Amino acid sequence: MSKVIRGPIFVLDDNIDTDQIIPAEYLTLVPSKPDEYEKLGSYALVGLPDRYSKFIATGEIKTRYPIIVAGENFGCGSSREHAPIALGASGVEAVVAQSYARIFFRNCSATGELYPWESVERLCDLFETGQEVSIDFAQNQLINHTQGKTYTLKPIGEVGPVIEAGGIFAYAREAGMIPR
Questions:
Q1: Which of 15, 108, 112, 118 could bridge across to 167 with cysteines, CB 3.0–4.6 Å?
Q2: Which runs of consecutive H residues, i.e. helices, occur in 120-167?
Q3: In this structure, are residues 100 and 74 in contact, taking their beta carbons and an 8 Å threshold?
Q4: Which strands form 67-70's sheet, in the order they lie side by side?
Q5: What is the average pLDDT across 152-178?
Q6: Which candidate, 180, 152, 177, places its Cα nearest to that of 162?
Q7: Are 20 and 78 in contact, with CB atoms under 8 Å apart?
Q8: Taking the C-alpha atoms of 157, 161, 162 and 165 in order, what is their torsion angle to the nearest 10 degrees?
Q9: Helix (H, G, I), strand (E, B) or coil at 81
Q10: With contact defined as beta carbons under 8 Å apart, do 92 and 70 qualify?
Q11: Does residue 27 have a pLDDT over 80?
């Protein structure tokens, strides 16, 4: 896969749970309705503690950060599909975390909303929100252009084509596993 995602990053630490990603009060929004999908994205990461800067600027509905860099256990907590959907709807294309809660990782591929990359080393302590980075899919690398440094990522593997297709059902249709 020769894809590159580039832009400023939003940095988080460990144990960012699904209630912080999208609080339960917004789960009544139906992502299959375009206006509610957009609204869901506008609430992404509103549950974060005050020590973090705003993920989406006041008056905006999308984030300026297409990439999130996080620590361990990203997406822990409830098994809600709304979490990766909210991030995708907000404009996030990829998360690079030290590790993921398994259900969040699975929901990323099931929904096709964003790429869940795993870092080889702990990056959230080395990066700062706003730094310009890119993810090189072919090289399994995260390049921090602000620092002038390159970091190795674990291969995205079989999840990549599923997300590229738009989720598990779209992938199954493309692969002829289920009728179109």
A1: 112
A2: 159-165
A3: yes
A4: 115-118, 94-97, 67-70, 4-11, 132-136, 141-144, 149-152
A5: 92
A6: 177
A7: no
A8: 170
A9: coil
A10: no
A11: yes
CA distance 1 to 143: 17
Tokens 């996030």, residue?
92
Residue 125 pLDDT > 80: yes
Which amino acid would we find at residue 19?
D
User: Which secondary-structure segment (H or E) carries 147?
Assistant: none
Burial (0-12, 13-18, 19+ Cβ within 10 Å), 51: exposed
Token pair of 111 as six digits: 């929904």
Q: What are phi and psi of 132, to 5 degrees?
A: -85, 125
Q: Of 105, 98, 107, 106, nearest to 153 (Cα)?
A: 98
- Phi, psi for residue 76 in degrees, rounded to 5: -70, 170
Q: Which residue has the higher pLDDT, 79 or 62?
A: 62
